[in-house]
């Protein structure tokens, strides 16, 4: 699983390394019943899109985290930061101190249901592995220990996640898809949305079976059929997100009225995702949503795109 551990305190960093990592949208998020360990079994069709964070790792006397970008006030910079946890986990694996300065440049919405924190953790793993010459370590194993969405941020593209989302199977995609993401003020707590999902199901007396993949969605992806994909988008967490943030209904309706082929809450929300007909339509829809005054901002992107990638240094 790993190469020979380095002796403690012998990490030799020679340069800074910058890694670019994408956001994700969940094209299908099927949520099974609550498990004994507090997780849910999932069928989670991840799709990486061209909204990116960048994480730079540089040699330092101790582990520090600096976060830059818009609306980053709620991002922790201490031990709770997931990128910092990634650096510590990798350093522990190779037997060294996590002496690194991490600088996170954020574009992915914070607490927006697009796995920005998980993306930063994946980027930190890749950057520190390059900085510390930890080429013998299987980063995917560490990623799964850090969180359910972190392995996909390493992989990118489009993939089905099963288990709690960390067991990945790449999915063939026959073309490029164009998206608009409506960014809300504030965030939604992922644990709170899952808890609300469980509460709503219990209140409705709903019996929940094992999650199942949508063959219609997978076929649409393979054909590159945007219209069929839009019709197949599904998110079992959407009712819970709408229960906690009712204003999202107006955002989803505005996107549909703007001609979106499909509309859904991304992951646990509150970001709303809209599938457009083309790049031009995406630009028009983003402008219309911004002008409607329902959202903090609306941005266009495309997918699929690669996972965590070194763009400078190393």
Automatic annotation (TrEMBL):
This is 4-diphosphocytidyl-2-C-methyl-D-erythritol kinase. The active site is at residues 24, 149. Residues 81-157 form the GHMP kinase N-terminal domain. The lineage of its organism: Bacteria, Bacillati, Actinomycetota, Actinomycetes, Streptosporangiales. GO terms for molecular function: 4-(cytidine 5'-diphospho)-2-C-methyl-D-erythritol kinase activity; ATP binding. GO terms for biological process: isopentenyl diphosphate biosynthetic process, methylerythritol 4-phosphate pathway; terpenoid biosynthetic process. Catalyzes the phosphorylation of the position 2 hydroxy group of 4-diphosphocytidyl-2C-methyl-D-erythritol. Its EC number is 2.7.1.148. It catalyses: 4-CDP-2-C-methyl-D-erythritol + ATP = 4-CDP-2-C-methyl-D-erythritol 2-phosphate + ADP + H(+). The keyword Kinase applies. ATP binds at residues 109-119. Residues 217-292 form the GHMP kinase C-terminal domain. Keywords: ATP-binding, Isoprene biosynthesis, Kinase, Nucleotide-binding, Transferase. The keyword Cell membrane does not apply. Belongs to the GHMP kinase family. IspE subfamily. NCBIfam families: ispE, PRK03188.1.
